[in-house]
Specification:
2 strands, mainly alpha, elongated
């Protein structure tokens, strides 16, 4: 007679619908800002920089609200380490770098380049990684 095999418990705690919407919304907003920065870099039309500034502001709003949800989920989690903590820290870094990017885009004219473009690339990559990790969040199992 074989003994029953019990798999290691992995508790799946995906974000709620509002949290997931806010998290997923950061990707197109920061990606749009990156594309606007690329267009500004190639055309010298200041309106592209203005458009990027507004998209970054929207991305920061979504990211900030998702950060609040992630903090609440981290506080409520039975295990305060592993993926939930890494997810929260990635969101925090994305928010801080997005804020620095917003300050960079507040400069006048061509002073935005090239730092604004580089920050937009970094924040967009962070948004993609954070959204992937946040929408596949697991706690309790191996990280």
């Amino acid at each position: 007679m074989s003994s029953p095999v019990t798999p290691s418990l992995t508790y799946r705690s995906p974000p709620g619908p509002l949290h997931a919407t806010l998290l997923a919304g950061t990707v197109p907003l920061f990606l749009g800002a990156l594309l606007s920065d690329i267009a500004y870099y190639n055309s010298y039309q200041i309106q592209w920089s203005n458009f990027a500034s507004w998209l970054i502001a929207g991305g920061l709003l979504f990211c900030g609200l998702a950060l609040v949800f992630a903090l609440v989920n981290l506080v409520r989690a039975p295990k305060k380490a592993g993926r939930p903590l890494v997810y929260f820290l990635l969101l925090l870094v994305m928010f801080v770098l997005g804020l620095v990017n917003a300050f960079e885009h507040a400069k006048d004219g061509w002073a935005v380049m090239p730092a604004g473009l580089v920050l937009s690339v970094v924040v967009t990559l962070l948004a993609c990684v954070t959204a992937w990790m946040g929408l596949n969040l697991r706690s309790g199992g191996p990280a």
